[in-house]
Amino acid sequence: MKKKLFLCIFLIFVLAQNLGYSQCTDSDGGYRIDIYGCVNVGGNQYCDRCASQNTLYEYYCTNSYPYYNYGEASCPSGQVCSNGACVAISQTSTTTSTISACPYTRCESVNPIGCRCGNLITEGSLRWCCVGTQSNITSSTQDECVNRCNFQSQPCPYTKCQAENPVGCYCGGNAQTTSYSRWCCVMGSLSYIVSSKDSCLIHCGTTTTSTSTIPSQCNITINRVDVTPQPASTQVTFVAVGNNIEQVRVRIYDSTGAEIFTGNWINGNSFTWNLRDNNGIDVRNGLYYYLMYARGCGREIEAGRGTFNVERGAITTTTTTTTTTTAPSQMSCAGRCGTYDPQAPCQCDLQCRINNDCCSDVCRACPNLPFCQVTTIPTTIVTTIPTTLPPGPTTIPTTIVTTIPTTTTTTISIPASCAGRCGNYNPQAPCQCDNVCHLYRGSDGCCQDICRACPTHPSCLVTTIPQPTTIPTTLPQVYISCPACRVGNCTCLISGCNSGYVEIYLSQDCGKNITSTYNFTGNSITLAPEREGIIYLKVICDTGQSSVCTPITVSLPPITTTTTTIPEVKVTCEKSVILIGEKINCSIQNCVQGTWFASNKQGKPLESPILLPIPPFSIEIGPIISEGIISVVGVCREPSVTSSFDLKVEKGVEINCSSCFVESSCSCEIKNCTYGWLYLTNSKENPLNDDIVRVISTSPYSLVFKPYQAGEVLLTLECYSPYKLTRSQRIEVKNVCSGAVTLNISPSVVSTSSLTRAYISGLQYCEGYNVTIRKDSCSGELACTAKANENCQFSAPQQEGNYTYYACIDKNNDNDYDDPGEQTFAKIEVKKIEERFKFINISCTPTKCMYNIENTIKEPGIVLIRLVSIPEGRIHYAANDDISPGFSGRREVPLLKIRDCTLGAQLKVVAIAFKQSDVENELDRIVKVAFTC
Predict the structure, then answer these.
(1) Is the pLDDT of residue 820 over 70?
(2) Per-residue CA distances from 808 to 311, 746, 762, 771, 795 (Å)
(3) What does DSSP say about strands 823-831 and 801-808: parallel, antiparallel, or unpaired?
(4) Where do runs of H (alpha helix) occur along 467-508?
(5) Strand partners, 784
(6) Distance from C-alpha of 714 to C-alpha of 728, rounded to nearest angstrom
(7) What CA–CA distance (Å, rounded) separates 324 from 256?
């Protein structure tokens, strides 16, 4: 039921999000570069703007999320961009017409790093146009450019002035100066460095002459991401610090790399998360990862990424004597039934059994919780109640078993057996026999004799795994190792399974003297041994596997405080530059455990970020899909060090070949290779009479060849410039689709609205081609579609009469059916026949299906019943029911054994009727939701 609730909430959330953006309006009517306009989407406005003197960002509406986009347009000759539109030069101001782009585009190659040529627009023809590290600088000589870039060398020393400045005039975190000015202010994209608060107010509050000549440009920049508080207990806020940030969103990942929260775009530069996952459930304490994205100036970029901790502690109260104690009410469920408190040390909600964090008195304080209700109590309980009760109430209830107060010290002895307790949960029993006990451990887990005493229990049913599921013949072995295990801190690595629990024993056979149990998810677990010596660990996986009893030596933490040299943690890849389509291995050195994180730094070479645990100590990245830069990061927790490696992806050589047919011209195009050799040889059969060898001297280069029979050819390219590499591609040569299409319809005499079938034949080498069955002509109403030489089913018309149906195939892909053998026809006769079969209704329980039919068919029929999971479509049960000629009324079909129906899975029932003499044509079908397992 919870899964259904979460699914409904998620669908409502998605629907609400999409409805918010579904209405888009464009004031200039679409993609118009000659008119200024604004797009309104979901309450947000995006207006056309000038990116430079000749470049315009034009916003327009689209049909898919986020329902708007923008295009970068160049103004036509004789026009410039002004106020969000391309206009004639005569329409712009005198100041604008004299502005020209920086004429020197090669100065970057001779400038030092950090002082490079930018695409600034400036008055006058200056020889050097440079961009500093933080603010734009225009200068006229190389020396002056270098000096101005070096001027940006020291950080602003005053970081607290932001709180004292008014809104719009604040301290810039990236403002830099060589002098120790008291005030460092930033307004929009223009930076000022002043020495007094008054000067700051003047610069931020007014528009000076020096800045009015600089054209307005929009560029979103991110300086850093602030995460507060650290650690988080109730919520955490992510703030992107930078310029021109319009919207932000955040994605959260747990320590295993699974995405647990996906945030929506919100206006502003901050995002607050309430520490609940996508299902609305509070997350547990531990380490989490975030990815933050930002929008602005028509662009979407990654704002930053990193880690943060969630720590929810117990609420403490301070008495008048300043003694801090834990609030006693939090250790009890009194007054807290059904609620979850993230700051409490134990819980009283419906999920506490699953999360193993219930308070000890949950069933005494909250007897109405489902897992606390005792349906049946064995009679042996009564016989073991002591005859003498301790001091208590003066009135003893007449029915002792069901009304004994929880404050009594009565000892009830319940055997660790399911005999007579099938389906029963008793919180006082040492083990359980209810239908979900196999989901829990300890006293809430199943008794050992459950399958002997309760053979119909869900965990005891033998399941049949349907084909074609591939199941490994042997499960992987489970191992646990704990290098450098210390008292109070012992990190162990687990292989062979990803979830379960670890038991700690003092005996070497792991059979008695158990001290504690730890749950784990992932490939590692941190224990807290209390004393030095040897302990024995055993891993029990959720999949049923377990490890051997493993001895672990626990030593005291090192006492010495001398500084030790930590080996350098370093991420390296096989090479620093790869090509599109390639794979590459990257590895990390001197890291015991942590997380791999690979994401797009420039462009989109990866479809999605990669988040994996360490170990393993190497990962494979690729194949890469486009140009750009990939940032490969190793976030190491032991030792606590982060290392990264930038991997550049280049386009390389492209080979694009069209479909190839016998006796037809086939073509291939080679791009990005200006010199090399091309070889075309037979790979399968002999499509070519002779090998083809060509010299590549231009890019792109086109190759045209004509194969003479079906098979496969191998194209090999040896490129020497600009890339030195070898590429190969196999090209399949197919026979041309031939033959004449033939149509046969059976039965050809049918009743009104009944089903009949069209059979296709007569075609050769036409695999993959579709044949459409249409009424009256090849442009008429579509009846059904079949593959070449196969068949399809359609319904006859509702009116009596003779009808003609055409079979149509476009063998030569010329978008018509006029060539020989591309169409044919067949006729059917439709009569009004009283025979009919109709499902009235159907319903199912876990033990049987009931359905009602109306049937006038004068021959035996058969009904096929299938129970199918929603939405996967997996068949969990199949049954057949024979129908006598002319039978109408109610039928029942028993369900003997439903396969693999896990708790909470929803099933639907599909019933299909046929004549026993014709199982290819359906009489009728019905589909309904059946029940939830």
Answers:
(1) yes
(2) 68, 18, 13, 5, 18
(3) antiparallel
(4) none
(5) 773
(6) 7
(7) 36
Q: Which helix (H) or strand (E) holds 9?
A: helix 2-21
Does the bond joining 529 to the residue before it have cis omega, within 30 degrees of 0?
A: no
Q: Are 361 and 332 spatial neighbours (Cβ–Cβ below 8 Å)?
A: yes
- Contact in structure between 668 and 713 (CB atoms under 8 Å): no
Please work out, in degrees rounded to the nearest 5, the angle formed at the alpha carbon of residue 720 by the alpha carbons of 580 and 717.
65
The H-assigned helical ranges of 356-465 are: 362-365, 380-383, 400-403, 450-453
Residue 342: Cβ-neighbour burial (10 angstroms; 0-12, 13-18, 19+):
middle
Determine whether 389 is exposed, middle or buried from the number of CB atoms within 10 Å of its CB (0-12, 13-18, 19+).
Answer: middle
Tokens 């199982």, located at residue: 919
The H or E element containing residue 352 is helix 352-355
Structure tokens at 452: 């002997």
Give me 342's structure tokens. Answer: 């993230």
Q: What share of the chain is helix, strand, coil (3-state, %, to 5)?
A: 10, 45, 45
Instruction: With beta carbons less than 8 A apart as the criterion, state whether 687 and 733 touch.
Output: yes
Contact indicator for 806, 823 with CB cutoff of 8 Å? yes
Dump pLDDT digits (tens) for 72-118: 888 888 888 887 888 887 554 333 333 333 343 334 344 444 444 44
Contacts of residue 455, Cβ cutoff 8 Å, sequence gap at least 6: none
The span from the first CA to the last CA of the chain, in angstroms, equals 10
List of residues 6+ apart from 328 with CB closer than 8 A? none
Contact predicate 676/629, CB 8 Å:
no
- What are the residues whose beta carbons fall under 8 Å from the beta carbon of 309, sequence distance 6 or more? 230, 231, 232, 285, 286, 287, 288
- DSSP state at residue 814: S
Token duo for residue 390: 């301790």
- Model confidence over 235-250: pLDDT tens digits? 999 999 999 998 999 9
**Judging by beta carbons within 10 Å of its beta carbon (0-12, 13-18, 19+), is residue 471 exposed, middle or buried?**
exposed
Q: Look-up: residue for tokens 């006693």?
A: 328
Helix (H, G, I), strand (E, B) or coil at 739: strand
The answer to whether residues 176 and 149 touch, using CB atoms and an 8 Å cutoff, is no
Report yes or no: 583 and 606 within 8 Å, Cβ to Cβ: no
d(CA 114, CA 133): 6
Backbone angles phi, psi at 202, to 5 degrees: -65, -45
Hey, CA dihedral for 201, 206, 210, 213, is it positive or negative? positive
Residue 442 DSSP one-character state: G
Q: What is the dihedral of CA 389, 394, 399, 402, to 10 degrees?
A: -80
Instruction: Tell me the residue type at 72.
Output: E
Residue 180 has a pLDDT of 33
Residue with tokens 């060090």: 641
pLDDT for 343: 72
Locate 658 and state its tokens.
């069209």
What is the C-alpha separation between 712 and 582, in angstroms, rounded?
24
Angle of CA points 556, 557, 558, to nearest 5°: 115
Tallying the residues shown for the chain, one arrives at 933
Q: Give the pLDDT score at 512.
A: 66
pLDDT band at residue 460 under the 50/70/90 scheme: confident
* Contact present, 645 and 619 (Cβ < 8 Å): no
